[in-house]
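Hi V.,

You were right to ask for the full record rather than a summary. Here it is.
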Amino acid sequence: MSPKTLNRACAIARRCGTDAATALLNEGLLSEEAFYKALARRLKTPFLGGSMRLGDGLLYPHSLVIGAAPLAPGSAARVVAAPRGAAVARLIRAAARLEYRPAITTPTCLRQVVFARHGDSIATEASEALEHLRPDWSCRPGPQALDLALVGTVLALLVALVRLPSVIGFILLTLIQALMLALLTFRLAAVGTSVAQLGGPRPVLLTDARLPTYTVLVALYREAAVVPRLVRTLARLDYPVLCSNLT
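Predicted structure:
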C-alpha cells in the first residue's frame, strides 16, 4: 500500500474522529479480506475464511461484540479473532505476550458463521427481545390491559344508560358530554397558545461550526436499484457536511 493511501486514511480518521484502520476499510481504500490477511501475516498466525468450525463455548452476541470466538477442537488455533478499530493495534501490541495467538478472520466471516450457528435464536431475539426488555415500547399483537379496561368502561356506560332511569341516564349523558367539551376546549386552548408563542422573538441561529454532529445510518439490503435516488435525496439534506461515509 502506498504512503499516499495511508496518509489519506490518517487524514480521514482525524476528520471523522476514528482510527486509520477503520478509515481504510470504510472508505474502500483496502478490502476487508486483504486487511485481515495482512494482519494475520503480521501476527504470524493463520487466516481463516468462512469454512471455520466454531467451538461449543460460542456465545451470542458476546462473540460479535468482542470480535472473537472459540474454535472447535482440531482447528488451527484455539480462538479466532476479528478485531476492529483500536482493538487491532491492541492485539498487535499484546501478541508477543500471548501464549496462544488467535487465528484471524474478517468480521464479515465471523458474523456469517455465528449467524449460521445460532440463526434461530438470533431471529427469535430480534423479534421478541423488545417485548421482554421494554414492554412499554413494544407493539405486541392482541388487546392489552389498558385496551380491555377502556372497552369495559365503555360497555359499562352503555349498559348504565340503557338500564338506569331516564333522569339518571340523562344526567350521566350530560356529564359525559361536558367532559368531552372540556377536553375539546383544552385542545383548542393549547393550539391557540402555541400559535401565540410563534409571534415571539426569533431564536438565535447557530453557526455551522457550533451545530452538533449527527450520523445518518441508512441500512440497505438487496435494494441496489434505489441507491442512486437515495444518495441524491441524502445529498439534499440542509445540514453542514462534516464527514460523509458510504459503506
